[in-house]
Amino acid sequence: MRFCRCGQIAGQCDCRKREPTKGQTTTQRGYGYDWQKLSKAFRVANPMCERCLENGKIVAVEHVHHVIPISVDRSQRLNWDNLVSLCQACHKEIERQ
Questions:
Q1: Where are the domains of the chain?
Q2: Which comes out higher in pLDDT, residue 46 or 7?
Q3: CA distances to 18, 19, 27, 31 from 24, in Å
């Protein structure tokens, strides 16, 4: 049995049910200029993958990830405390959960 990051059984919550994004711009999806500026600043302040660092590995950041997804709480979109720096492998692993 797998669990979603919100704590419910995977597939039985609304976290993974995203609104269709086909035809939407990056700004409409929540990744416009304000996000790009914040993301860049976060990468400068947190240049290493936080999950890898916890495991004693040093890997450069490739993604800035929302802990609480935009689809769950859009008000957390630009909240610095809702962000985590991740490498490609860790980001893929989190998105699969």
A1: 33-96
A2: 46
A3: 13, 11, 8, 11
